[in-house]
């Protein structure tokens, strides 16, 4: 008879669920809200523990398993506008992880088992937590290395200007090479409507950056025109402001230029700013 310790079972599935949700979010380019990820992982771990309670065998039904997975994803990424995409990525990551466990089992490994979709291990609890920490460190290292080759990730950006701050979601993209032609520093391109609260009282039309600059010049000297090139645009201009500071995720870019786009920068609305990595 196999003895199952619910505390070890819960912690193991909590760690595995968190890593799977984290990997799915990073691969899908979703903003990572650690608290919601942890709550989603905890719900999945509670389901895994409940399966082994007396009289709860009905939870092994495929519909119950599907419901538990959907509940995890809704909890972790309920604010996402691309829930279907992150769901498909999560299913792919979970399948790959399950395949890896199956391969270890075939090779004679006995440390970690997968039964009825539930992860269990007879290893010492401290070793389980240490292994989970090692997996997280490895996952972080892999994604940091991949950042050198086509890295794209969503992060929370804070733009400060004249004592006021606006927060928005920014896409960090190595393919974005827009820079200040004077200093060579990166430029944050943001939807102008998202930063209206930072602009002076004068109402300006960002679709006409020259006229907008003329309207703002008497009120502030911290605005200028920024030339840019894009697909279908050989030489265009954006109204840009010299910020007090821009922070994207945990990285501070200092008082860089913020270009005000008259149109959305994301076709799906998942982010409202762009900056080069």
| DSSP strand tally | 11
Q: Give me the strand/helix succession.
A: HHHHEEHEEEHEEEEEE
Major beta sheet, strand line-up: 6-7-10-5-11-4-3-8-9
Tell the overall outline.
elongated
Secondary-structure topology with pairs:
Elements: H1 6-28, H2 34-51, H3 62-77, H4 83-106, E1 113-115, E2 118-120, H5 125-146, E3 152-161, E4 164-173, E5 188-191, H6 209-216, E6 223-230, E7 233-242, E8 245-248, E9 251-254, E10 257-261, E11 273-276
Helix pairs in contact: 1-2, 1-4, 1-5, 2-3, 3-4
Structure summary:
By secondary structure, the protein is an alpha+beta fold.
Question: Which key features would you list for this structure?
Answer:
single chain, 277 residues, alpha+beta, Cathepsin D, subunit A, domain 1, 2 domains, nine-stranded mixed beta sheet, two-stranded antiparallel ribbon
Structure description:
The chain has helices at 6-28, 34-51, 62-77, 83-106, 125-146, 209-216, and strands at 113-115, 118-120, 152-161, 164-173, 188-191, 223-230, 233-242, 245-248, 251-254, 257-261, 273-276. With 277 residues, it is an alpha+beta fold. It folds into 2 domains: 6-146; 152-276, Cathepsin D, subunit A, domain 1. The mean pLDDT is 77.
